[in-house]
Inverse folding.
């Protein structure tokens, strides 16, 4: 039960992926389409293990956004999981489909290229992510704390559907790399 | 439908996209959904008559199939068609492997192949060279993939896609006739009409 004084739930999730799964279920997000990433692995495994979800991999992130947009228009709520470099391939589909037609395409992006990454390609492409989201006017939030994770995911999904707009949830290493 | 039963691209009749689109739409009696790919595919769908179950793409080249897959997953009792050009299909060959593995029974991808990027000045696509999209679809794992030999065969393939389990991949060689009409660029109206046509929005 939620504490009346605090916007944060009294229930403490054991880990970030548990908090995400709970928020997806609370909002009837049943379709999970992804291009895998090592950080996303526990979330991907959790949704595959749970009959509540239909989960599958696509060849490209752009394709996954198309699938989730089609499903959203036909009444099935979905989310795309990807890493930073995958998001960098999406400006066209976001602009011409999700933003133009006002479709609540939800995205969850594992943030690579920051806070200790070893890969220069990831570090460079990471700098394009927030400017692209901002130039397209797409609501986005970065998850850094476990105690805030469910609240942010839950509220972002609700706003995306109420306002018929795409939204992005960025998983920071602050959240996912802490042991 | 084994590979020995279906002809190769070079062996089939060159047809007309608008004529085939009209023939396809005429067979839709159960509010089937149709996703019209970017450019001439959706212009001829628009020209073939307004249907609230039609979604007309105004960008995102190559995504008619993925959008149709999402619709098919959301509404498994409704048949869903994606209409794509050869240039668009070549952009998302990986999506054929996704469709094969997800294997929606209610999805058919129809490709109009004129071997050119017609809307940008008729530059040749790879299908004007050596690529055969039906062979690619079959190799991606969509067993029911075929070229339409002629108009009668096209109608027969559409009837099968309406009656039998998919996924289906149906390709037609078409000529270079440009559409007579263009879809209005009204993406929000198009989406809202489509969602009402699918019974999702009141």
């Amino acid at each position: 039960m939620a504490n009346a004084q605090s916007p944060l739930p009294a229930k403490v999730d054991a880990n970030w992926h548990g908090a995400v799964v709970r928020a997806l279920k609370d909002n009837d997000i049943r379709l999970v389409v992804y291009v895998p990433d090592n950080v996303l692995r526990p979330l991907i495994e959790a949704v595959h293990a749970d009959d509540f979800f239909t989960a599958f991999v696509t060849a490209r992130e752009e394709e996954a956004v198309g699938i989730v947009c089609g499903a959203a228009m036909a009444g099935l709520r979905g989310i795309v999981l990807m890493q930073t470099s995958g998001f960098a391939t999406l400006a066209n589909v976001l602009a011409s489909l999700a933003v133009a037609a006002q479709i609540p395409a939800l995205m969850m992006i594992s943030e690579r290229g920051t806070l200790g990454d070893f890969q220069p390609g990831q570090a460079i492409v990471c700098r394009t992510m927030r400017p692209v989201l901002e130039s397209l006017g797409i609501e986005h939030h970065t998850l850094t704390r476990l105690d805030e994770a469910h609240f942010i995911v839950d509220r972002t999904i609700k706003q995306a559907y109420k306002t018929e707009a795409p939204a992005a949830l960025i998983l920071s290493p602050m959240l996912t790399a802490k042991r | 439908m084994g590979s020995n039963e279906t002809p190769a691209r070079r062996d089939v009749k060159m047809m007309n996209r608008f004529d085939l689109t009209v023939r396809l739409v005429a067979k839709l009696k159960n509010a089937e959904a149709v996703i019209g790919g970017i450019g001439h595919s959706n212009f001829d769908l628009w020209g073939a008559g307004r249907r609230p179950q039609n979604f007309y793409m105004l960008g995102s080249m190559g995504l008619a199939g993925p959008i149709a897959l999402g619709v098919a997953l959301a509404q498994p009792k409704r048949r869903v068609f994606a209409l794509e050009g050869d240039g668009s299909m070549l952009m998302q060959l990986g999506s054929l492997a996704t469709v094969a593995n997800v294997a929606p029974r209610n999805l058919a991808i129809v490709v109009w192949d004129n071997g050119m990027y017609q809307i940008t000045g008729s530059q040749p696509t790879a299908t004007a060279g050596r690529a055969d999209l039906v062979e690619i679809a079959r190799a991606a794992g969509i067993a029911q993939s075929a070229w339409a030999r002629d108009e009668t065969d096209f109608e027969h393939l559409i009837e099968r896609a309406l009656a039998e389990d998919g996924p289906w991949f149906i390709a037609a060689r078409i000529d270079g006739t440009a559409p007579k009409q263009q879809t209005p660029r009204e993406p929000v109206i198009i989406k809202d009409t489509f969602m009402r046509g699918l019974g999702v929005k009141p």
